[in-house]
Amino acid sequence: MTADEVGVGRLAGTVARLRREIDEARAEADGRALVELAKGVLVERLRCGPAQAAAQLALLAERAGTTQLTLAVDIINEVSGDELTAVPAAGTDTATAIRLRTAESGALHAGDTQSVAESLFAHALAPLGASAVAIWLAGADSSLTLAGHAGFAAGEANRWRYVPPGVPTPARRALVEREAVWIPDLGESGLPSIGSTLRGRATVPAGTGGRITGVLEICWPSPLPPQPLSVLKQVEALAELCAATLDITAPAGPAAPAPSELTDLADGLLDPALVLGPEVSPDGTITDFRVHHVNSAFVDLAGRPRTAVAGKTLLEAYPLAAAEGDLFDKIERVLGTGEAFRAEQMNLAALIDEVPLTVTAGVSITRHGALVLVVWRVQDETTRLANLLQHAQRLGRVGGFEEERHSGTIVWNSQLYALHGRDRGAGPIPLEEIADHAHPDDVPALNGFVQTVLRDHRHASAAFRLQRPDGVTRHVRVIAEPVLDPLGTLLAVRGAYQDISAQHWTEVALSATQDQLAITAQEAAERNKLTLQLQQVIMPPTHPTLEAFGLRVAVRYQPAAQEELVGGDWYDAVVLPSKQILVSVGDITGHGIKGATGMVVLRNALRGLAATGAGPAQLLTWLNLVAHHLADHIFATAICGVYDPNTRVLRWARAGHLPPVLVRGGRGELLPMLPGMMLGAFAEASYVEGEVVLESGDTLVLYTDGLVERRDLPLDDCLDRLCAAAQEPRANLDELLDHLLVHSDSNTDDDTCVVGVQLP
């Protein structure tokens, strides 16, 4: 062996040794919290001080010939008794136990759900072969919000940040079924979900106290084979870790009062309502529900006063509610999944002097945070429906019939005998003979009607003049449909006759209605014209370029092509008393007069608030209060920026609006997507402020969604196209804005507003 080969061998050995030391150092850093936890266990068990516990842990590790981290994990597993490292008889290797406990430590010390997702993915799921993980937060309406994720592209996570109620996804299956769902191949399941190119999928509900607060979704790159029991238990234990960060609302205890908003909602109902909170046992199961509030319209099923029910548990007040498949099960499911339950007919039972009483009622059960609202309306359904049908037939002058083809049995109701002026003793008229009782001019049409129903087996209707035995002629419409067996054989015919003798007056009323519709259409056109004029007065298509303190601001506004769609897009650019420059753009939901007047309210309010000298985030906070409390149901998105010419710093904040585009050095890029709720959605909202230092030659473009959105393209692609268009060289700022407006390929027929800010 040459000297060079010996040198290379020594170098390779040194590199391997250093790599081992680095890996050990990283493992020690990741497991520092576990080592400290093990020291705490020794302090409690040995009743010694921290220094003695540290020395004892080091001594035990040395004698066992292992690292302190490995020993610490063994100690924690011994005293925890949980399922995080639960395994079958074959046992779990040390490395697996360490990474699972490291993932647990990282999740418990994480400040938010995003950090939990990253910790679980790095330490527990990636070693299992998983390529991505998502943590969903379950809303009170059973919607799903992406609270944390790892392994997905930023654009993919942004597209799946919210899943409305009712959309079938693997996470929703786990939420509704309240158990883990393992899908070998997502493509074959037909369910849409985040990361659709990833094949294997597992979704596990996460919750505490009987209430599911979210779902843990794990993705594998290829089809997923059956997993061993150890992996199943570990995944369920990891889902419990997610619940710790998702469950931000503690379940109401026996003495916890219901929120005032929920009690006000219950008291505003005209039907009996109960506000219930779960009673949870030490092992986390629901044993009962406490009645936290009884509304003013409450009428007890057993005739008791409200005070006899308020404060009691549900099973104390209504013991029969625990019958299998009855009210208690429905309430427990709604609390667990957040999916509302509604039934037009449901049996409710109560005890009166130990005698059960069952009534039929329409029931609605909804979850509000950690509480449940139960509303019912008692009804005698059979009697009510019979009376309703009888009155409807009488008022509508309708009579029904049914003919059985094989037996020849014909059934008419009383309204049909009265319509035909026929005595019951004379019996009903078969459908085949109806032409014998019609005006001769109507016979051909009736023969075609009968042939369509009886021979062609198709639904049909016809109008004719019925000549009754008493000499009275009635204008009648007959409607019939065939009843067929699976082979297409005609079993029966059912239908109805309706007296339409007042057709003339109906046509007169219809003519009057058409005239009124024409007047209404004219009024709508005038309102649309007024809205457009109002928009053009306040928001002219072009605005003189503002030049102040070396900053140039230009605006363009283009109303919707259809006058009835003219909405509430607005812009503003003004020099403030503080010698700073306010730049803003916004979009009011809705169209017409309401959208235009809402735009005026928010635009003028922002101008007035900006005179206080407050920053953009504070201005949006105040503007949200205006939209929520002082305006008539206004919802809007907006961006507010304040430019300081002394420092060239533009401070800005957004309220649900698309981020601005900064063009610098011939390259257009979106500014960061700062968090911020749309205006008017909630009474309390806070906003984050960002800063950008403008350099000579910079151009900042603010805009509304009418400039970029397309129905056939994802929003990310639309924004990329805007950045590309904005970075094309133009002679000046006005030409740039005109170019963006003229070459916009948006197809949403919405208003478009563009504001350009340029530092020459």
From TrEMBL:
GO molecular function list: phosphatase activity; RNA binding
Q: Which UniProt keywords apply?
A: Hydrolase
This chain belongs to which protein, by name? Serine phosphatase RsbU, regulator of sigma subunit
Q: Which residue windows are transmembrane per the record?
A: none
Q: Which Pfam families does the UniProt record give?
A: ANTAR, PAS_3, SpoIIE
ANTAR domain segment(s): 15-76
Instruction: Read off the SUPFAM superfamilies from this record.
Output: GAF domain-like (SSF55781), PP2C-like (SSF81606), PYP-like sensor domain (PAS domain) (SSF55785)
Concerning InterPro entries, the annotation shows: ANTAR (IPR005561), Bact_Sigma-Reg (IPR052016), PAS (IPR000014), PAS-assoc_C (IPR000700), PAS-like_dom_sf (IPR035965), PAS_fold_3 (IPR013655), PPM-type-like_dom_sf (IPR036457), PPM-type_phosphatase-like_dom (IPR001932)
CDD domains with a match to the protein in the record: PAS
Domain PAC, by residue range, is: 460-512
